[in-house]
């Protein structure tokens, strides 16, 4: 019930500088669970923003009245990575030893925010639902931890895809839940849902 809402939420997106992505933003109005109305959209060209500083942006909504005020910072990201299985970041024994030293009990209070990090190896999926008329799917996998999100590449025309990717997340809250969702890529349309699992960090 507000024409001037304040959300004050922070989201982390992992942006790799070899890509020229636009940040797309949509604002929606919800009357109830079934009725939604688009109130406006805007875009931010990430490549045009200065690095290592917080940029205050007031963005007019396209084809709609109003504007969106947001703070965007592009900064080097520590602890997040995507790699192939053959070059797993924790595969080196000396690196594992350094990590064990870093997170020893006696070092617990040196940096309260440095809880640790989670490494996930996404190997493959088996017997997925066929989402296409051809009897196949074009599956990719999305991993979400808190407000962090990473995803695999798409394996086309396959119900038993192998991704063999390693994802590393910094942990900000030990009570977070890792959500792993498989989607079917569908061209310009929204992807189709193929399945999901949720893994509480406290169960790892």
From TrEMBL:
Does the keyword Magnesium belong to this entry?
A: no
Q: Name a Pfam family for this protein.
A: C2
Q: Where is the C2 domain?
A: 1-59, 93-204
- Alphabetical list of PROSITE patterns matching this protein: C2 (PS50004)
Question: Which superkingdom, per the lineage?
Answer: Eukaryota
Annotated GO biological processes are: regulation of neurotransmitter secretion
Which SUPFAM superfamilies does UniProt cross-reference here? C2 domain (Calcium/lipid-binding domain, CaLB)
Q: Which UniProt keywords apply?
A: Calcium, Membrane, Metal-binding, Repeat, Transmembrane, Transmembrane helix
- Membrane topology of this protein: Multi-pass membrane protein
- Compartments (UniProt record): Membrane
Q: Which InterPro entries match?
A: C2_dom, C2_domain_sf
Would the keyword Repeat turn up in this protein's UniProt record?
A: yes
Q: Which residues form the signal peptide?
A: none
Family designation: Belongs to the MCTP family.
Q: What is this protein called?
A: MCTP2 protein
Taxonomic source organism: Formicarius rufipectus
Q: What lineage, starting at the top, does this entry show?
A: Eukaryota, Metazoa, Chordata, Craniata, Vertebrata
